[in-house]
Design a protein that fits this description.
This protein is mainly beta and 131 residues long. It has 1 helix and 9 strands, in the order E-H-E-E-E-E-E-E-E-E. An 8-stranded antiparallel barrel has the order 1-2-3-4-5-6-7-9. Strand 2 and strand 3 form a beta hairpin. The radius of gyration is 15 Å and the shape is globular.
Length: 131
């Protein structure tokens, strides 16, 4: 099992609809910025944002941050949220399927509804520091 503990930087995002067709990548369509830190004591923080240099195109800018205690069973990362940029997440379990592709950690959150359509996302992370 690969070790989750450390600091990870967001390197790529993807999204697709139920029929498999590609959808715009989250957090700025390929310019997303993010950091996840998972410590050995079972505490984590995640911060993600739209990395586009300016909001002039009229599209909303996506931002997300949360932290809490986590567990990892080798396939799923579950974080019990105790602080968040989205109040509705407080006290919830944020569940992410985890897999590794080479030196990348791939996190897959549950599918969400975007513009009335179910969309699946994946976020690719590269470890940039050990704990």
């Amino acid at each position: 099992m690969k070790d989750l503990v450390g600091t990870w930087r967001l390197v790529r995002t993807t999204a697709w609809a139920e029929d498999g067709s590609e959808r715009p990548a989250p957090y700025g369509g390929g310019t997303g910025m993010g950091v996840v830190v998972l410590n050995a004591d079972g505490r984590m923080i995640a911060v993600l944002c739209d990395g586009r240099p300016g909001p002039d195109d009229g599209k909303p800018r996506e931002y997300n941050s949360y932290c809490g205690n986590y567990t990892f069973d080798g396939k799923q990362l579950v974080t019990r949220v105790d602080a968040s940029s989205k109040p509705e997440r407080m006290g919830s379990d944020q569940v992410r399927d985890v897999r590794f592709e080479g030196d990348l950690m791939v996190l897959r959150p549950p599918a969400i509804i975007v513009n009335g359509e179910q969309v699946q996302r994946e976020l690719y992370w590269k470890k940039v520091a050990e704990a």
